[in-house]
Amino acid sequence: MEKNEVEEIIRGKLKENPDELIPVKSLKKMGLKRNTCSVCGKNFWSFTPKDKCGDVDCIGDYTFFKERISELSASYVDIWKLFSQFFSKKKHTEIKRYPVVARWRDDIYFVEAAIDDFAPYVIKGTAEPPANPLVVPQICFRFNDINNVGLTGRHLTSFVMAEEAAFNTKEKKTYFDEEAIIYITEWLLKGLKIKKEELTFIEDAWAGAGYAGSCLEYFAGGLELGNQVYMRYIIGSDKLEDLPTKTIDMGAGLERWSWVSSSTPTIYEATFPKVINFIKNKANVNYSDKDIKEVYQYLGKFDFEKTEFNEALEIIANKTKFNTAEIKKMVSDMRAVYSIADHTRTLLIAIHDGSLPSNVGGGYNLRNILRRSLNFIDSKNWKIDINDVINEHKKELKTLYPELMQTECTEVINKEIERYKESKSRNAKIISEYVKKGKIDNNEMLKLYESEGVTIDDLQDAAERAGKNIIIPENFYSNINRTKTSEIKKQDTDLIKGIKKTEKLFYDEELTESRAKIIKIIKPNMVILDKTIFYPEMGGQKADNGFIEKNRVTDVKVLEDVIIHYLDNIDGIKEGQNVDIKVDSERRELLRRHHTATHIINQASRRILGQFVYQNINEKKLLAVYDSANSLTKINSSELTNVSDDNIKLILSEVYLLNYLSREFSDYISDVQDK
């Protein structure tokens, strides 16, 4: 089922019987009343009678610009402390953030919402949560609105999600919707000190990562402050099924809480005020907060993936004391300041957590925002070093995320700047040709973006310098935002419906032969046993091979707690049959040694080459693959050998330290890393 289809089904259920899907009892007990928005038609709850739901699209303005809606004034670091203290009194445990590089997931590159930390295993009930209930200041990345960053005053590529989560398992019942809405309302009124008459809760539906539920989005002053999801469904191929672990997922942008409490011109001054001042001083940009606020209160209502920039400026000019040219100059300067501040924070966090700019995977987005920052600096002729801005972020973030202070980004950033300059020189002629044409379609833009590293900003800047207009594709960044494709589709969970978890015998490494019963055969070549000695691919180690009867086992994977064996054929076996199973013991031993050796080499590699090392092994060779700004040298190799020898005296069958930019991948990587 598609996300939109799922959400429409839940919205239909909400209209028919809200008592089943949202905490009506608690809402009424707290004194809120249900209303219907006269603009969008959605149902919402408020303490005072209202005919509009509170979303800026319906009320027309961000009213918190004109009148304070919170009696609190605090930085987002201080607000996190208050939030954590508030929920600790409700018996919640604060946990450390997860890495933003989501290596435990096969469907996303980066954590996009805090609930990603716990999907799929905790939510499905196959793993214990680190605490229950809990709160976490989880850094999240989202790259689908890059063109809006710096323009709307509210869009970010990275943000801190204040997460409140509670998991209701068979073993432990925590709390669900009736209690959760009381907690968050109390926090908003007493902790964040939002004025009661400003607060609204809009009924809606949420779906993502294979799960879904009803939700209450809460607004004040026209701004969405957060969303409390009552996760109760698994998304099947053709229907919604009950989720065994009913989950409370309350996520809110910490930066937005700080913004409404501090009443700054944009979210950026509330998020990284020292960095903003640093960039403005370096760039000699001196607009007053009052003037910025006057313009950005209107800019925030536009989506610049859909709205033409100059058209928006003309609308704003009619509402302010500035003319179109003055607004254009201010917004051009401040957009650059804000974007550089946002993008450099994202790069710092990504590099610390183990992801580098590149033209593949999640690195694709990182390279894009780095080049976007460099583009702004070049187009403005500002004397700003990206590395200096990153160092300012480290200082500003050290209270909440002290680990970032240890991150060394200079080598990576400087190498990327070299590549940027090379590509800029190479692409000048291509850009000029499209500016002359005056337009570019989505396919052409995508090709330029992926193969040459040309961005929309490159084209727009060149057109502006030439005094021309260029028509670019709408929603381009949203359309090219990269996500992984899962090897095992969500629909495949239907294949194991009703099957008990497989008994795991493979932890006994000496057990290489046994008997098992075939529970299910899935054509063309998948077999599920009641118990197995075959180790599935996980934890960085390849799966066992061997035999089920005379049929060769070529791969083994785990889906939730069910282990699936892939055979070369399923001839001569049937469901219900007791069969002989045998592991290729020589291959298992070799893989085991390789796996141990990989950890040794990785440790040595990180000491010599840096933190960007990961593993990729098979039965013939061990690869300690690393992303690095520079090539591996003979000196590096000698150091690695010495470090490894100091750690353990072990002859490895074959050890290859492989530069991510060379050797076996050289033909492919030439197009990936050198653009």
TrEMBL record:
PROSITE patterns: AA_TRNA_LIGASE_II_ALA. InterPro entries: aa-tRNA-synth_II/BPL/LPL, Ala-tRNA-lgiase_IIc, Ala-tRNA-ligase_IIc_anticod-bd, Ala-tRNA-synth_IIc_core, Ala-tRNA-synth_IIc_N, Ala-tRNA_ligase, Thr/Ala-tRNA-synth_IIc_edit, Transl_B-barrel_sf. One of its GO terms (biological process) is alanyl-tRNA aminoacylation. One of its GO terms (cellular component) is cytoplasm. Residues 74-615 form the Alanyl-transfer RNA synthetases family profile domain. Its EC number is 6.1.1.7. One of its GO terms (molecular function) is tRNA binding. Belongs to the class-II aminoacyl-tRNA synthetase family. PANTHER family: ALANINE--TRNA LIGASE, CYTOPLASMIC, ALANYL-TRNA SYNTHETASE. This is alanine--tRNA ligase.
